[in-house]
Amino acid sequence: MARLGTIARRVEQLLGAAVVATTPVAGGDVCASTRVRLSDGRTAFVKTRNRAPEDFFTTEARGLDWLRTPGGAAVPDVLAVAADCLVLSWVEPGRPSAEAAEAFGRSLAATHAAGAPSFGADGNGYIGTLPLNNTTAGDWVEFWATRRVLPYLRLAVDRGAISTDDRAAVEQVLSRLTDLAGPPEPPGRLHGDLWSGNVVWGVDGSAYLVDPAAHGGHRETDLALLALFGAPQLSRLLDAYDEAAPLQAGWQERAPLHQLHPLLVHAALFGGGYGARAGAAARGLLDGREGTAR
Fold it and tell me: Can you list the domains of the chain with their CATH numbers?
């Protein structure tokens, strides 16, 4: 109760409106989440630091604002941001209907099409609590290898979270990345950590992007992330996306390439079987390429 009182006073300082109710919301261990109702009729979602780095919320707010594009996927409004908290407009949860998934697929295509100046971003970010190097690169192959896969492969190795054989398979993929990456595409405006838990399905029929690792990247990355942990209504979502912004041939087969980064991040953070899953994804890519060559 004391914590909720502290959060209420902080929100009142930032928004200039009295808090009339506070309710804890289930969330991860990086941040604590609270729903607050304000005297002016607004409802807000407040994130406060547990293990989050000091610039975590300002980075998140910057990513949300960048993702907010005309015709693009819905993004909660940033009501206030400080080192100790982030206050967003509340999204009343709804159900991921087929119609909502199709609308999200089309709007996500528009977000990606808004583009980015380069592969990377003008500031570094976070993936969970791990730092994310967004230094720009000349092309996606360089960016993916040096900014996304290799740093987390090394971290997984250092933490004993991936076997020697699985490491070798990932390294072999990187050595053949130019051949495996598919046709070049311009940098898209990516969420960057678009697993199903970072999509909030609103009662208004919109799907809202939250907790971004925003950067300029390959649009297939966001789609592969949605598939990795099973986004609801996935086939309807992807079909609508492909209709709005046709994907390059072979994008389904390339999904494991784009899943290597999140699998290695999970291996570094949580261990378990994620290192083995990264190795299996890499071997699947290599076997598929060899089968194509034959």
Answer: 2-89 (3.30.200.20), 98-293 (3.90.1200.10)
CB 221 within 8 A of CB 243: no
- The whole model's pTM is what? 0.94
Digit-by-digit pLDDT tens for the chain (294 residues) are: 558 889 999 999 999 999 999 999 987 678 899 999 999 999 999 999 887 888 999 999 999 999 999 999 999 999 999 999 999 999 999 999 999 999 999 999 999 999 999 999 999 999 988 999 999 999 999 999 999 999 999 999 999 999 999 999 999 999 999 999 999 999 999 999 999 999 999 999 999 999 999 999 999 999 999 999 999 999 999 999 999 999 999 999 999 999 999 999 999 999 989 999 999 999 999 997 643 332
**One of 65, 84, 193, 211 is an active-site residue; which one?**
193
User: Among this protein's residues, is 211 annotated catalytic?
Assistant: no
Spell 132-170 as b/e; 16+ CB within 10 A means b: bebebbeebbebbbebbbbbbbebbbeeebbeeebbebb
